[in-house]
Amino acid sequence: MVFLRYKHYFIGALVVFFLVFPVIFQKSFAQHMMILIFMYALLAMAWNILGGYTGQVSLGHSVFFGIGAYTSTVLFMWYGISPWIGMIAGIIAAVAVSLVVGYPCFRLKGHYFAIATICVGEIVHLIFLNWQAVGGAIGLFLPIVDDSFVNFQFKSKVPYYYIIFGLLLLSVATTVWIERSRLGFYLRGVKEDQDAARSIGIRATRYKMIAMALSAAFTAMAGTFYAQYILFIDPGSVLFMMLSIQMCLMAVLGGTGTVWGPLIGAFILIPLSEFSRASLGGAGQGLDLMVYGGLIMVMSAYKPSGLISLFQKKE
Questions:
Q1: What is the gyration radius of the CA atoms in the chain, in angstroms?
Q2: What does DSSP assign to residue 232?
């Protein structure tokens, strides 16, 4: 295929295009749309590390997103700590929670693991919903301070655009490294046949925990960005289960266990969702979910390996 032959040139051209995008498209909605696509692509990439490469389908990843958002917000509001430091603290907290949650959950397999992650997500959602010290159901409004990089607040959307684009590139680079490293081979081995992987000396639980920690770290990173971009968080926006399902759907639509699959899924599903809401003015609430479901059904029937398979060589 022509795409495969000139893949590196195509990717380079895309990177250049995204770098100049805010200059070409200066309207707020266009920049906002691309920021959302990048953020959800980052979330899908993070989910893919665990669900795609390791085969552990998590439907509770919103927990890590919420931890990243709440940690940086609370540190900024209560102690005046820069959100950048709060992002690092949120990553550490999310990784710690992932290890605590992952150890018992990884004793389960298949749909039992998925159900366990749903339960964890709902438990954490209820905790924050009733935790008045962090705003409870009302949520937290971040204070508006002077625009600066240190404060992670800007009047223009352009700085937010480049920040989330940089974070996305970091996640892509990490995924490429995983795919080409020994860790990636171990994770794929665990996904294909856990018992066989153990029989040749691969410590399956250990590598699943590593994948969970990396996935949680990038998800928490996106949570901090979301909090600073929207300047408001509550359990219904950062800890709801639909967010976890969206991460999964984007990766599945594009192609799990690949570098570019989650990106393709995000670039299709997020514009569908946003344009349906904007065009229908809220009257079509839930229409995007129906489209999601329809696309996944079609893909499951005709392209189970995702849209990325259209660009891969046929053996």
A1: 19
A2: E
